[in-house]
Amino acid sequence: MTNHHAHFNTSCVHAGVEPEPVTGAIMTPIFQTSTYVQAELGLNKGYEYSRTDNPTRSALQSALAALEGGKFGLCFSSGMAATDALVSTLKAGEHFLSCDDVYGGTYRLLKKVRKRQGILSDFVDFSNLAEMEKRILPQTRWIWIESPTNPLLQVIDIRAVVELAHRHHVRVAVDNTFMTPYFQKPLELGADLVMHSATKFLNGHSDVVMGCLITSDQALYEQLKFIQNAVGGVPGPFDCFLVLRGLKTLAVRMQRHQENAFDVAHFLSGRKEVNWVRYPGLKSHPQHDLHKRQTTGFGGMVSFELKGGLESARTFAKSVKLFALAESLGGVESLCDHPAIMTHASVPKEQREKLGISDSLIRLSVGIESAEDLIADLDHALSAVGA
Ligand code: P1T
Asked: What amino acid positions are annotated as catalytic residues?
């Protein structure tokens, strides 16, 4: 049985999963089936069709809900499909208000796809809440937070945004991809919904694309479950199995990502080739204290700006060997991203410049390798930049 009072490390291993009733298999089987035989008209065993429900997916959804401290979880075929399910609760003319430094795909979904169906959206700076409040419209239905943001690792005061939003009868969703519930539990901070790109730390092994939504609000859950089935962007059972497996080591991976990220952030801070380093765990981070108040740790993402513009970034990207030049993050292996050309290319250049996503900004997803090897790799690449 899932023990709802278990400590987080225990929940990672046990939440949502039960021995399989027929054989006692300790690991949730991959129910690789599209449909389920019915005994007679209207009589089934709780499963009718795998777009609607699948036992492997149900186990994962329960596990994710338990880890976030929510009642209900829903999985989707990608993080974007999960976000879009939430956006699908809006009608034409209604408004979605997001922080301005967000994953480029979230911006693209709202501005390039859903705008055509009449959904309004604004992307504004949430560090000044008085200014942000002015952007809440009578038609605003959801406020969307990433904290820390992708890629600049700005920290947003989740409790303060929730308080303000609820005063305006607007609900708050938090994209918790970077922190995971190991470090941050937005529902406990008052948020109405948590979203993840499960592609990242939750799965942790760079072999699945998936998203999820978690809430404790039953009416909202039912609305989103209806959309999940009606639109059909669901993950397959094998991918659900892989994420269930990944979750078992979430706590130990996150701890290790963080240890390595601290070492990398300290190392980069001392280098002359680097303009600045952003890591929420550094005292130099502008919202270090705020971050500490709303989390139990700092995660595995480090961003920094090189001196010397795009040429420096090109040299750096060509010179790293252990850090793979690739989009995505949150896997056991270290990755290096150039947001302006890679993950955030869909954000218009003027908007990128306003935010500080310059041509020499580098984002690192620090993996669980030996820190000495990661630092030797960075040392080599920075020396090439400086030469
Ligand atoms: O890639 P997908 O599983 O669809 O999730 C989209 C997404 C949503 N939210 C955040 C914070 C994300 O980082 C992502 C995906 N991000 C990358 C691929 C990236 O390299 O930033």
From this structure: 51, 103, 175, 200
> What is the full per-residue pLDDT of the chain (387 aa) written as tens digits?
444 557 999 999 999 999 999 999 999 999 999 999 999 999 999 999 999 999 999 999 999 999 999 999 999 999 999 999 999 999 999 999 999 999 999 999 999 999 999 999 999 999 999 999 999 999 999 999 999 999 999 999 999 999 999 999 999 999 999 999 999 999 999 999 999 999 999 999 999 999 999 999 999 999 999 999 999 999 999 999 999 999 999 999 999 999 999 999 999 999 999 999 999 999 999 999 999 999 999 999 999 999 999 999 999 999 999 999 999 999 999 999 999 999 999 888 998 999 999 999 999 999 999 999 999 999 999 999 998
**Which domains does the chain show, CATH number per domain?**
6-247 (3.40.640.10), 250-386 (3.90.1150.10)
Amino acid at 63: A
- Residue of 77, 103, 113 to test ligand 1 pocket, by largest number of atoms within 8 Å of CB: 103
Question: How far is it, in rounded angstroms, from Cα 102 to Cα 122?
Answer: 12
As a whole number of angstroms, the distance between CA 216 and CA 192 comes to 7
* Burial class of residue 76 in the structure, from the number of CB atoms within 10 Å of its CB (0-12 exposed, 13-18 middle, 19+ buried): buried
How many A from CA of 167 to the centre of ligand 1? Answer: 30
Compute, in angstroms, the gap from residue 1 CA to the centroid of ligand 1. 33
pTM above 0.85, yes or no: yes
Of 126, 109, 133, residue with least CA distance to 290: 126
Give the separation between CA 69 and CA 190, rounded to whole angstroms: 11
